[in-house]
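Complex 633.
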Amino acid sequence: SSLYKVDGWGGSYFAVNSSGNITVLPHGSETLSHQEIDLLKIVKKASDPRSCGGLGLPLPLIVRFPDVLKNRLESLQFAFDHAIQSQGYESHYQGVYPVKCNQDRFIVEDIVSFGLPFRFGLEAGSKPELLLAMNSLCKGSPEAFLVCNGFKDSEYISLALIARKLALNTVIVLEQEQELDLVIEISNKLCIRPVIGLRAKLRTKHGGHFGSTSGEKGKFGLTTAQILNVLKKLEHVGMLDCLQLLHFHIGSQIPSTTLLADGVGEAAQIYCELVRLGARMGVIDIGGGLGIDYDGSKSTDSDVSVGYSLEEYANAVIHTVQYVCDRRSVKHPVVCSESGRAIVSHHSVLIFEAMAASAYCAPTFSTLGLQYLVEGLSEEARADYHNLSAATIRGDNETCLLYTDQFKQRCVEQFKQGTLGMEQLAAVDGLCDLIGKTIGTNDAVRTYDVNLSVFTSIPDFWGIGQVFPVVPIHRLDEKPTVRGVFSDLTCDSDGKIDKFIGGESSLPLHELEGGHGSGGYYLGMFLGGAYQEALGGVHNLFGGPSVVRVLQSDGPHGFAITRAVPGPSCGDVLRVVQHEPELMFETLKHRAEELTDDDGNSVVTASVLETCLASSFSKMPYLVASSCGLNAM
Ligand code: PLP
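Predicted structure with pyridoxal-5'-phosphate bound:
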């Protein structure tokens, strides 16, 4: 496990068992229940039709652990509760989950249900998100916040006001000054008194990749002058009491509590000023930014790590708000956060399979031999060849390095001019590989083909170069013998994973047991529960992965799959881009009927065509648990 740093990034949820498999501790290692679930067993049960009760779902597969989600939510709440209690803070913490991180219905419903005892709410950033949040919060605590962020048109604002009328604790957060006119106009028209928040553009700047939304030039929020205009306008229309919440967001993955405290301190001063200027303030919403340690390094100057724990984060927030408010004699506000990444990242694991690995080819020289190669070389290339040979025998690595590139370059030029054959060029490649291996510059990194689309399943890797922990989920009791990178199934050269945690450009891997093309080597991409599914596209028309929901159980395997959704069929993804699979099927059938061979028979019979296309086009059923196991629905 140390090779893959599982102890570092796995937090209290992932470990390696004595069989060398990754296990999941759904309630975290800090709880009394130390039940572990073997990930490989879940994968076999979900994907292998031959295993007992196997569901035969296609890979890649997302395995979700609602118990982990519950533990994350409770840990966040307890961290704030503890900070509040230990520091004598005179109000409470009441978080919201920003649904943009993962809008999956069951995740949102779980969060609302797990968060019921602590009035946990939701944050929406668009109309569809608002609709799903309204719907889900009907089962939440009546006090749970429904925070409405993002760009708002009159439809969005009407919907948010209706939500308030439906007794959902809705706050319309102004992101732009002009939204206020719409809020005033529509709330008057609908006779609904709104609760308004405003998003402040802080001067505090988060320097990492995710900090581009922060600072004076950030895309979102109101400047100091705009905030004053909002106050003036609200006072003018007799609605200053509606302004109750101050929001800010300095960016995701805040690396250190120093930066966090800086931002929270500035916001707390704005909060106190709003109180001084007559608003009926009650809540400070510190946005997202609670980070995840993807590489386990606990670094404070990296986009993929953070240098604090949940407890340290909560302590820093509560201490800073309290300090500022006490100095200004302002009543302590309710503290709200919009932590997304920190809540959902751990609970989803993406499983994929390495189907084939490029074998390391020992250089072969054609039957014609080296002599034939040398004879075909130009005078300069031949001189390079002799220098190279002599340097290799002497063990003079520097000269070897110098001449290898030059020699290869000259030979390629010769090939382009048509004076060197393909066999000779292959021999040149082989010779250079051999020399590279001899002097130790060629580490023979293999490429493993994996059944996955990076664009669909790990878009942040492709889009912003974010690395996630990727680890074989079994055979960890065997020493890996090769190093490799991954090539996905799309026909796009960016469809590869060649950067890993710890700054590595390849990963220690095992040989495929059944040889090339055998598959059966399963890998997991961890901590990808936030943003990846929400951002993933259908590049190359690869549909999303299959998804299973897994709960701990007392059964023989220690787990039960309570929901299974196969990835979309070809028909499903074709519909996304406006094709009509039924019509496509008819067109192809018609063509098959038209085309006959010399004897007048159809070139493809209708039944062959039907069999071939039916499974690709059909909509797969999805499965849910029933009292007697999984049933098709
Ligand atoms: N709130 C707002 C306004 C955001 O823009 C974001 C995302 O960047 C979040 C909350 C969630 O942030 P995080 O996932 O870092 O918790």
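The chain is about 40% helix and 15% strand.
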